[in-house]
Amino acid sequence: MRLAVVGKGGAGKSVIAATLARTLARRGHRVLALDSDPLPGLSLSLGADVPAEPPLLAAAERGENNRWRFIHGVGPVRAIQRYATDAPDGVRLLQIGKVTREGMAPVMAATQAFYMTIHGLGRAATFHDWVILGDLPAGPRQTAFDWAPYAERYVLVVEPTWQSMLTARRITRIARAARAEVEMSLVVNKVAGEQDAPRVADFLDLPVAVAVPVDEGVRSAERAGAALLDHAPDSPVVRAVERLADHLEGSSIH
Fold first, then answer.
1. Chain segment 86-134, per-residue pLDDT in tens
2. Which domain holds residue 156?
């Protein structure tokens, strides 16, 4: 499975992505989580430590033309093997550059290394049988700029609001314009009424893979600074993500 989790800001992408990554890992999959958001949402939602500086910073250097490149002896596979960090349940986490006290230079170096790494994943036989799961920043921008070249399926996380639905429609159009064969799995999040999920499905002309109810456990976990799977393992959102995992595993067989 090669997945990119996308949607509008505040739709709940990182919680869904992190809970899905750990759920799949618990089922025996080897999971590489790709955090392409400069904000630390995915690592916190996984229950992983946030490193003091971007690990990928060490993988990049400036070449003769002053452009970033991998250091000698490092390519996409070795970058993942060296610089991905451990997360709970055996998930491996590779993070883009985050802002540090050193300013933007470390961010640029780590971001370029991250971009080169994800664009090499398609040729990396080492990770052929891994689940690759990317959490993209909010909105359509990174979809348009090819920040999920590995993705065979987009997990579209959508709230039942006009802004969220419009953003999801734009992401879908951009993704399919780039690659017509890409699959879409619709997750309607923060559902509060019977018509919420059907309304989103009708607007996007997509079937609902799973409807995720509004859940106080998510806010409680965020206030506690904990992963939902650790803070409220029996919450409705966790149960919904388990159904999403069933859907994705079934889809990957065909």
1. 999 999 999 986 665 656 666 788 888 999 999 998 888 899 999 999 9
2. 2-253
Among 82, 81, 109, 87, CA closest to 96: 109
Cα separation, 60 vs 67, in Å, equals 10
Q: Name the residue type at position 115.
A: Y
- Element containing residue 224 per DSSP (H, E): helix 216-224
Q: What is the pLDDT of residues 127-142, one digit of tens each?
A: 999 999 999 988 888 8
Amino acid making up residue 193: G
Which pLDDT belongs to residue 66?
80
Q: What is the DSSP letter of 103?
A: B
φ/ψ of 116, rounded to 5, equals: -65, -35
Side chain identity at residue 52, one-letter code? A
How many angstroms separate the CA atoms of 228 and 220, rounded?
8
CA–CA separation, 16 vs 8, rounded Å?
13
**CATH number for position 125:** 3.40.50.300
Which tokens in the block code for residue 217? Answer: 């456990």
Q: Is 11 within 8 Å of 76 (Cβ atoms)?
A: no
Joined together, the tokens standing for residue 136 give: 């993209």
SS3 159: coil
Residue 151: what are its φ and ψ, rounded to 5°? -75, 125
Measure the CA–CA gap between 179 and 171, rounded to whole angstroms.
Answer: 12
Beta bridge partners of 213: 191
